[in-house]
Amino acid sequence: MYVTRKELIETKAKLLKEMNGYILRMGDVDAWFTWAIVGIPESATEEDYKMLVSDDAEWVNICGLFGRLVTDTK
User: How confident is the model at residue 72 (pLDDT cuts 50, 70, 90)?
Assistant: First the structure.
């Protein structure tokens, strides 16, 4: 199965939106603040998501941040 770059970006953007929603639903103000400053801007647009996931290094950093925030608050 071949996945185009466009499809990959769309899939990663969808995952990033889901990660963002998870962080918001956690209700942890410190985690949310870190996420908003280092991860996803508070009022991120569709273009923001696509830009963030288009850069492979940025994608890896955001996924790592998500994992740390979720793990640190349990």
Answer: confident
Sign of the alpha-carbon torsion through 12, 18, 23, 24: positive
The pTM for the full model equals 0.89
Which of 62, 71, 68 is closest to 44 using CA atoms?
Answer: 62
Sign, CA torsion 20/42/61/71 = negative
Structural domain harbouring 58: 5-72
pLDDT tens-digit readout, 15-61 = 999 999 999 999 999 999 999 999 898 889 999 999 999 999 999 99
CA Rg value for the chain: 12
Number of domains in the chain: 1
